[in-house]
């Protein structure tokens, strides 16, 4: 049997229509399995509350007590020989008193040549000795030298700070020499007046 072109197209169209109808019907008749949304892991949220505490501070009032260097007689001019140091103590500090034979910075006495210093080296606290040849105070530990005529200026060595000089007063009537203070903090001390009562 011979099929015309028109019959062929009609039959093809009918077939396509039947397929579409079948698909729609089939989809309705056999619905897909529903998608199930599974719940994720449960999150726990913790709320933090910060409490602000009020702290009350009690202030202790510090009373400042003024301490003064005492005036202490340490020598008389009659007992001093030029170039020969004498060793004394002033408010717990070991000091050396020297009559230099030449006018010195802060020197007292008729020739303004009597000076006194802490005996502790400003580098690491070595005990100083007086060298009459160089007229300097010399540290035997690392050989720093200080010039007593120039207010204890470091001349050579590790020490970089002046030697603390004892401030002196001279009584012309009696020849007495008094110590009345220091020009600087003595090596190893937080306070030169430590232990001195106000
Ligand atoms: S302690 Fe005197 S120079 Fe070092």
TrEMBL record:
GO terms for molecular function: 2 iron, 2 sulfur cluster binding; arsenate reductase (azurin) activity; metal ion binding. Gene3D superfamilies: Rieske [2Fe-2S] iron-sulphur domain. The keyword Metal-binding applies. It is an enzyme of class 1 (oxidoreductase). The keyword Nucleotidyltransferase does not apply. It holds the Pfam family Rieske. It comes from the Archaea. SUPFAM superfamilies: ISP domain. NCBIfam families: arsenite_ox_S, TAT_signal_seq. InterPro entries: AioB/IdrB_ssu, Rieske_2Fe-2S, Rieske_2Fe-2S_sf, TAT_signal, TAT_signal_bac_arc. This is Arsenite oxidase small subunit. Keywords: 2Fe-2S, Iron, Iron-sulfur, Metal-binding, Oxidoreductase.
């Amino acid at each position: 049997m011979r099929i015309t072109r028109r019959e062929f197209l009609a039959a093809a169209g009918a077939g396509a229509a039947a397929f579409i109808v079948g698909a729609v019907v089939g989809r309705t008749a056999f619905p897909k399995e529903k998608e199930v949304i599974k719940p994720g892991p449960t999150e726990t949220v913790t709320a933090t509350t910060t409490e602000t505490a009020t702290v009350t501070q009690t202030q202790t009032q510090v009373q400042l007590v003024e301490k003064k260097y005492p005036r202490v007689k340490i020598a008389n001019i009659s007992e001093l020989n030029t170039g020969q140091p004498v060793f004394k103590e002033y408010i717990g500090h070991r000091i050396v008193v020297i009559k230099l034979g030449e006018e010195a910075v802060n020197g007292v006495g008729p020739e303004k040549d009597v000076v006194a210093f802490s005996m502790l080296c400003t580098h690491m606290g070595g005990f100083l000795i007086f060298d009459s040849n160089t007229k300097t105070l010399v540290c035997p530990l690392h050989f720093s030298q200080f010039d007593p005529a120039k207010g204890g200026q470091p001349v050579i060595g590790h020490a970089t700070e002046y030697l603390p000089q004892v401030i002196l007063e001279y009584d012309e009537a009696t020849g007495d020499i008094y110590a009345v203070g220091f020009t600087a903090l003595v090596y190893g001390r937080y306070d030169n007046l430590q232990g001195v009562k106000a």
